[in-house]
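Q&A log
Question type: sequence-to-structure
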Amino acid sequence: MPSKAWDRSSNVELSAFNRQVGGSSPSGPTSKRVNIKAILADPVKRKELAIRFIMSAQAMEGIDTTREQAEAAYEQVQKERLTHSAKRSKVVL
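Response status: OK
Response body:
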């Protein structure tokens, strides 16, 4: 992936995102510490991190996954999470 490519869904410059999450740069891997709370607090960065993790986990298992498939999986999990939370909030103890 080019270092200056733009993520079409969030307009986040991927090279900047790589630096924030401790990813690789053209000069090699970075060793900076990252503020994971800040990344997880930002919905765009959290989604990008999750999508990259899905693709990485699938690749480790030898499964080719497109970005679109990873995004669909992320959206499905979010939908199920919201549905599950709504059901739990209606339970009377």
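Response note: Residues 14-89 form one domain.
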